[in-house]
Structures are given as C-alpha cells and as structure tokens.
Amino acid sequence: MSVPLWAWLALCLVIAAMLAVDLFLHRDNHVIGFREAAIWSAVWIAAGLAFGVVLWLWQGDEAAGAYYAGYLIEKALSVDNVFVFALIFSYFAVPAAYQHKVLFWGVVGALLFRLGFIFVGAELLETFFWTAYVFGVFLVYTGWKMAFRHDAETHPDRNLVVRLVRRVIPTDARYHGDKLFARVDGRRVATLLFVVLVAVEATDLIFAIDSVAAILAITTSTFIVWTANAFAVLGLRSLYFCLAGLLRRFVHLHYGLAFLLAFAGVKLILSETPVGKLPVPLTLGVIVGTLALSVGWSLASTRRSAERPAAR
Asked: What b/e string do you get for 232-260 counting C-beta neighbours within 10 Å, with b at 16 or more?
C-alpha cells in the first residue's frame, strides 16, 4: 500500500491537534472522574473507528479490514498496559491529580518510539523472509509467558531504565507538584514524577515490541500499523481512568490476550509458508471472538465469586 507524504503529514497534524486539545483541557491537573474518562474514551474510540471508514473510502476494504484488526488487537493489549500502569502509580503513590500528566507524556513518547519500531520491523520483514519466523516465535513465546506467568511480581523501581536514570540524573525522591524537574538546594534535579514517567515509558517499550509485532503479522504497511497503534494508544489515558477500578473483574482476560499474541505469531510464520497470509476477515473474527469469550468468562467468574458469600 503506497501512501503519499501529504497523508502522513495530515495524520501527524490531526494527532498533534487532538493531543493539544487534550492537554489544554487538562492543564489544571484536576482528578479525572469516571464520567469524564468515559466521555473521552468514547471520543477516542469514535475517532479510531471513523479513521477506519476514511481508510475504507480511500484505500478499499482490505486496507480498512487490516486497520480494524490491528486497532482491535492493540486496543485489547492496551488493557494489559492499564494493569501495569495501575501498579506503577500505586507503587510510587502518585497523586491522582498528576496521573493524567504522566500518561499524557507517556503517550507522546509511545507514539514516537513505536513509529521507529514499526519502520524497522516492516523493513526487516520485507527484506529478510526469515524475520517472520523470528517474530512469530517471539510472539508465541510472549503469549505463553502472558498466560502462565501473568501474576509474576513486578517491581517498577528495579527496572533497568529507571535505575539507569537515577544513577545518571540527580533525582529527588519527592514530588514537587506536577513538575518533572525542580531546583533543590540550588541545583536542578529530576523529581519523583519524572522517575514515574520513565517507568511508564520503559514499560510501554516492552509492550510496544509485542503489539507492533502482532500488527505486523496482519500487515506490513507502515501507515496502517502506525495508525492502528496511534489511535489505540491515544485513548490509553482515558481507558486507564475508566478501567483502573474495574480491573479486578477481568480475571481471565490475559488468557485471551495470550491467545491473540500466539495466533499473531502463528499467522506470521504461516505467511512465509505455502499456506500464505490468512484472510483479514478470518483474523478479525478470531480477534473479536477471543475478546468476547475472555471478557464474558471473566465477568461470569467474578459474578459467581461475588454471589458465594451472599449465599452463605
């Protein structure tokens, strides 16, 4: 799929404008309530779905189908990001009023880092056929880890990037309002909020490898892969504030996400065999069916658990 430069520029301008509006409306660092988060989630989801319609009118149903498949799998994997972000905020006791700022700049960094991953990954897949096997095996292994080691204990302050930042940049172990840097005893230091931002960015880098590889299993069009990532990641902040208090209900969702990663890995491997690429409608059906099944299973299980004490 050939995309002219003006389309890339137009997309970047739209995303920058949406981010600017979001930053302006949240400049007062107020605590994000569920209602506000739900409205913004609806806005971001509507924007993501609308872009698929634009892509369908411009490039046809195959491109739109690949975009929607990538968008759905990225949106689903974002829920796992929310789990980890909640852990990081709890671990560092981040005040609720400053969490949006951390997530905002985290999203900006994620968009830039993922763009680099996408171009490198797509180029590797186009140039060296055997990288499909490497990425495919990696996705299957990641799916296995997610399914059977999902509850492994995580310590954000032990993250290699976080430790490196604390060693290289003078850091104060306190919050200074919403500032990422402050002056303490006459010298400029990074605040604890900056350390939290680094932890969020480092965590997203790990997730980005999985999610970008999963979408590249669907299409190697850099434009489609990045737009699917971008519109899913743009709604990550509002998704966090919507789901942070409901995460305990999705007890089996990680099995569904693990299956989707493994499915993407198998799909990528098959693309370099006589079987070839699986049809996009089949991929969409597997994604939607897996998510519906894992969410339904989770909600049914937690409902039964809640009813047992009442029955006694």
From this structure: bbbbbbbbbbbbbeeeeebebbbbbbbbb
Residue 15 has pLDDT above 60, yes or no: yes
Antiparallel, parallel or unpaired: β 181-184 and 187-190: antiparallel
Q: Which residues contact 23 (CB under 8 A, 6 or more apart)?
A: 104
- Judge contact between 135 and 121, C-beta under 8 A: yes
Give CA–CA dist 139/214, Å, rounded: 7
Flag whether pLDDT at 151 surpasses 60.
Answer: no
Q: What are the tens digits of pLDDT across the range 25-76?
A: 777 777 787 788 888 889 999 999 999 999 999 998 889 999 999 898 888 8
Q: Token pair of 249, please?
A: 């209900």
What's the pTM?
A: 0.76
Percent of the chain with pLDDT over 90: 10
Distance of CA 71 to the CA centre of its chain: 10
